[in-house]
Amino acid sequence: MLLVVGFPRLCATQEALRTKVCCPPWEGDGSACGASSGRGFCQDVEVSDRSDGPQYPFSGLDDREKWPLVFYNRTCQCAGNFMGFNCADCKFGYFGVNCDQRRESLRRNIFHLSRAERIRLVSYLNLAKQTVSRDYVVVTGTYMEMENGSAPMFADVSVYDVFVWMHYYVSRNALLGGPGNVWTDVDFAHWAPAFLPWHRVYLLHWEHEIRKLTGDRSFTIPYWDWRDAQGCDVCTDELMGGRSTQDPSLLSPGSVFSSWRVLCSRAEDYNNRGVLCDAREEGPLRRNPGNQDRNMVERLPTSAEVEFTLSLTNYDTGAMDRNANMSFRNTLEGFGDPQTGLGNSSRMGMHAALHLFMNGSMSSVQGSANDPIFLLHHAFVDSIYEQWLRRHRPSPSQYPDSNAPIGHNSEYHMVPFLPLHRNREYFISSKDLGYEYSYLLDASKFTSEWSFSISIFHLNLRKSITVFHYLYRGSSWLPAKRQPLIWSNDTVESSHRNYQTTM
C-alpha cells in the first residue's frame, strides 16, 4: 500500500508534470484512484483564496504557494476512510480491507521500553536510513528549472531521508532568483499556527512508513519526556548515540548512528548559490548537547514551564508569528517566554530550546530531522499539544481562517504532502486519529485497571503478586512519574497586545 509523503515516483514524470495530473491507479482494480471500486476519484484541486499575513509579500515566486498547484492541479481525492495518493491506504486510525476497523496505537516513554524494544527501535531507524525508498523521490530543482515540467529534476533517497528532505523543503527560504536573492521570513510549517498540526501529520506518516517497511504494524514512535532533564538522557549508545571521545561534536563509534550521513543541512550555502538542496550526503551527523550558546538557551525546559504553556487559553494571537503574545502555539514552539507568555523572546524556550541544546544537526531548522532525536522530541511536543486540546477543548474557529503567515491558514494544504491535508483537519485530538500517549491515558481507565488488579489479588495472592509486579515494572500504560494535571481547569488570563510584524 502506498501513502505518499512527498513526490510519488508515478507522478515524477514528464507527462505528469506537464499535464499537472497526479492520479495513479490503485492496484486493486487498475483504475485511477480506485474509482471503479469507489475508493476515490481524480478531481481538480481546490485551494483557499483567503488572505495571508504580511510576512511574505510576494505571489507566484515560490513552488509552495497554493500547494500543490505549481506541480499538480488534479489529484486523487479519496472517499470514506480511504487515503493515499492513489487511495490505496486507510486514514489514520483505521485498517482492514475496507478501512472500516478502528485501531488505537500507544506511544510510550522511551525509557519504558524493554531492552528488546529499544534494540528494535534502533534497528528500524537504521533500516529506514539504509533502504532506498521504492515509492517516493525528492525534488531537487524548481518547477521553472525543470522547464515547466519538461526536464524533471528528482533524486532517489532512503525512506528516512524522504522525511529529512520534507522538513528541509517545507522550511527552506524562498528563492527569488539568482545567487543570494532569497526571502528568509517564510516557513510553511514553523513560526505560525500550522506548526503543531503539520508536525502531527509528519509523525503519523513517518510511523506509517516504518510499519510498511518492517511489516510491524504495532510500531509506534516513542517519546522523550525532557521536562527537568539535566542533560541528554537519550544520548547513549543503546539509544540515540553517545558522545565520541575523540570529537565531542560527533557520535560514539559504538552507535550505529555514528555512520549516518546528513543531507539538506547547508541552508546558507544553498542561499548563496540560489539553489535547492540536491539531496547529496553532506558529512556526519553532529551533536554536542549541553554546549550550546547560553545566551540563547540556558537549560532544558522545566515542568513548571510546560504547565504555564498549557495554561494559555488562546491557541494563537495577534499576527500569529514569532511575535505572538500569550499564544500557546508560539510559547510551545519556543519564541514566547515560557514564564511570561510574551512573544519574540530573546531566549529560546520549550521546543526550540531542545533543538538548540543539542548544538549540532538538530540546531538547524532545515536540517534538524537528520538527527533521530528529532522524532522522540517532536512526539513529546505533540503530546503537549494533545494535553492542551483536551484541557481547553477549542472550537474549530480557534484555528485561523485567514491572515496567518502563508501556508498556515486553516484551509491551506500542507506542504509538501500528497495526499493533501488541510491544517485544520489536525486541530483535533489524537484519539480521533487513532493514537494515544501512555502518560495521558484516562484516569477512569487507570482506575478500572487498578481495581481489576486488586480483585485478582484477593482471589489469588500468588497470581496477584505477579500481576502487581508486572503493572509496576513492565507495563508502559501507567502514568509517568511526572504526570501533569491534565484534568485541571486552571487557566491564566490572556491579555495580549495587538502589534504589527517587524519586517
TrEMBL record:
**InterPro entries registered for this protein in UniProt:** Di-copper_centre_dom_sf, Tyrosinase/Hemocyanin, Tyrosinase_Cu-bd
Q: Which domain of life is it from?
A: Eukaryota
**Gene Ontology annotations of biological process type:** melanin biosynthetic process; pigmentation
Occurrences of domain Tyrosinase copper-binding (ranges): 190-207, 371-382
Q: What class of enzyme is it?
A: oxidoreductase
Cited SUPFAM superfamilies: Di-copper centre-containing domain
- Which keywords annotate this record? Copper, Glycoprotein, Melanin biosynthesis, Membrane, Metal-binding, Monooxygenase, Oxidoreductase, Signal, Transmembrane, Transmembrane helix
Where found in the cell?
A: Melanosome membrane
Q: Give me the Gene Ontology terms describing cellular component.
A: melanosome membrane
Q: Where is the signal peptide?
A: none
- Stated EC number for the protein is 1.14.18.1
Topology of this chain in the membrane: Single-pass type I membrane protein
Cofactors needed by this protein, per the record, are: Cu(2+)
Single GO MF descriptor: tyrosinase activity
| Similarity-based family | Belongs to the tyrosinase family.
Task: Supply the name of the protein.
Answer: Tyrosinase
Q: What is the source species?
A: Seriola dumerili (Greater amberjack)
